[in-house]
Amino acid sequence: MKPAKILVAQGGGPTAVINQSLVGVVLEARRQARVEAVYGAWHGMRGILNEDFVDLGQETSHNLELVAGTPSSALGSTRDKPDAAYCRQIFQVLQAHGISHFFNIGGNDSSDSVRIVSEEAVAANYPLRCIHIPKTIDNDLVENDHTPGFPSAARFVAQAFAGANLDNAALPGVYLGVVMGRHAGFLTAAAALGKKFPDDGPHLIYLPERVFELERFLADVKLMYERHGRCVIAVSEGIHDAAGEPILAQLAPQLERDAHGNVQLSGTGALADLLCEQIKSRLKIKRVRGDTFGYLQRSFIGCVSDVDQREAREVGEKAVQFAFHGHRDGSVAIKRVGNYSVDYELLPLAAVAGKTRVMEDAFIAASGTDVTDAFRLYLRPLLGSGMPDAFRLRPNPVAKILHPAGV
Amino acid sequence: MKPAKILVAQGGGPTAVINQSLVGVVLEARRQARVEAVYGAWHGMRGILNEDFVDLGQETSHNLELVAGTPSSALGSTRDKPDAAYCRQIFQVLQAHGISHFFNIGGNDSSDSVRIVSEEAVAANYPLRCIHIPKTIDNDLVENDHTPGFPSAARFVAQAFAGANLDNAALPGVYLGVVMGRHAGFLTAAAALGKKFPDDGPHLIYLPERVFELERFLADVKLMYERHGRCVIAVSEGIHDAAGEPILAQLAPQLERDAHGNVQLSGTGALADLLCEQIKSRLKIKRVRGDTFGYLQRSFIGCVSDVDQREAREVGEKAVQFAFHGHRDGSVAIKRVGNYSVDYELLPLAAVAGKTRVMEDAFIAASGTDVTDAFRLYLRPLLGSGMPDAFRLRPNPVAKILHPAGV
């Protein structure tokens, strides 16, 4: 049996459970008789370029379990997007170290990187098994029921809105929370799972799957504020006008772009502030508060879905099993089986790489500012066990003496 | 024995455990043989003015326990600050309902409201026992070791920075998180408890107890960025210049003020955005991200200190015991006994009301941008059990082949 040398890397934005996938790869690889080395690349593709490897065969299984439970990418990450020249340099390094299996944990940009490396390996006649392992809080990988990392971030968003709704009920006004998600509204839509009673917020949800019109937004807020005496709003950072131009881009003069050409939407409170200012000035509502969930929603330690943890571990483990029992490169995908269980498939890289899933129409209410029950049923099992719950005092009014009814 | 009628209210910003104190009052009051009614006022002092009461004698103990575990003020809150005329109206309502004991759960503004009501009651020869029950995430009540609500908010901030540090280590750059706290830096300082390894962030902490100078700030960031290749910064929303002018106020033209004359600092991402812009433009650092923790830090459901929960329950219970076994109005205060346990005292209202505690010098490092071990020892027991922990892969480098050392 030909000896195997494994290399694993992590790419893109960290998640609460990306290290579960890393440890799933490492422990399953160390279990294979053929495997003589398991390396990790520091900071993703860039670490391969720089030959910056850690020997994960010298790590204890105890510490691997502790790292698995730690959020964010333990190997570090990168936003590098390799082109053909970049890949040729990578092959030189992989060849020098005799790497036979490459696992990359990441989102759709990372899956595209794996696709390029895989194709370059074939073109260069270099024997390299390339497997992409899914991860993204945006839940925007096609062909997957959902992606590891999304359930834990969704849980954070749901809990955040459950709490913000209680806060807003105590001190009424308008509360607006901006949630990550460039093209896909899944994470913003998760705010709906923070709602328990019929009059609870979020009362309005704005997704990038629908065109955002400021005048309609203001009319929606006015209506909800009149109905409830308060209003809680979830807004995706990716909301855009009919031409596809981000609402934020219309505001900020110079926008940062990453190596993939994406405008930098996170890391600024500008969108929340702009929308709050509009509500204050146009609707004459005094107490208007905006929060931008920013990096908290993907990096907060201690808010994690146990279902997400288990599945993230499994996709790593399955990736190794597909690599050693299968005969082609691919991307591991999560398929839902029953209510609720999952199974895993290995899809061709081209079926997933570089494509973006957005929310299905069946998940978005006709109003365009709420989700459907189908979405609630889709998301709830992913959030896992032990979700905190909110309770209210029952009315039991005391009869007025000085101000009887009608006086 | 004279029959007693209890009224309880909640004031100021909600916390994760303010309902524990409410339920502590209600259950202990219902246990007293003399008590014939336990009322709650909806939305604090304003609810009294409007005679808007709920009969908490008709609430089940089971639901009270569920409400106790729910964050934010179950009775609703208010920012009203009563003057003498406001208080006279309140007396008319209390007298009409035969209220004998008034409990108000809140921070230093709320304690001042209790003081005014208490003094007006004496002046009006109205027999009313007034007890203030402490609550504030700012931890700025004098004469208290700490205040209920602060430990849970501090836990959120510590967990947020622990996660933000991991995220920043994976994708290096500058991360800046703005934390609540107008005059007192306790909550911002809690960021230090998110640090585990010597090179972990937060690398810099800016507190309202020290004068903020932009040039020094930029020099600090530059130094840390050069040292660690990244930098995580905790900034209090209340940072100000040598004249005491908030840094935010220098930025925003028109600032909202509440009934107490306080400038509105929260609910906007402007301070983080301003400071990030300075770092980008002056230090030429490309990846700079700012988050404003906003309302998440006080209302997030599911991040709570069990120590905080127990103490918040106890201050409510003790308030009733002081009212029925003591002979004067007052404010319940937490005193630390041993390491770690607490006891409770009833202080004169004037000793606490309207005063603001700030961080002791012994808690702030000489650099002015870190806390001392004394602060770490002070805060750690308050955060409670089950704090999530972060772990790293150990180095174990793989020898380079193509790029050996020095080449």
UniProtKB/TrEMBL annotation, chains A, B:
Non-allosteric. Residues 5-322 form the Phosphofructokinase domain. Keywords: Cytoplasm, Glycolysis, Kinase, Magnesium, Metal-binding, Transferase. The record marks 109 as: Important for catalytic activity and substrate specificity. Diphosphate binds at residue 13. GO terms for biological process: fructose 6-phosphate metabolic process. Its EC number is 2.7.1.90. Its cofactor is Mg(2+). Mg(2+) binds at residue 108. GO terms for cellular component: cytoplasm. PANTHER family: ATP-DEPENDENT 6-PHOSPHOFRUCTOKINASE 1. HAMAP family: Phosphofructokinase_II_B2 (MF_01978). Catalyzes the phosphorylation of D-fructose 6-phosphate, the first committing step of glycolysis. Uses inorganic phosphate (PPi) as phosphoryl donor instead of ATP like common ATP-dependent phosphofructokinases (ATP-PFKs), which renders the reaction reversible, and can thus function both in glycolysis and gluconeogenesis. Consistently, PPi-PFK can replace the enzymes of both the forward (ATP-PFK) and reverse (fructose-bisphosphatase (FBPase)) reactions. Belongs to the phosphofructokinase type A (PFKA) family. PPi-dependent PFK group II subfamily. Clade 'B2' sub-subfamily. This is Pyrophosphate--fructose 6-phosphate 1-phosphotransferase. It comes from Roseateles oligotrophus.
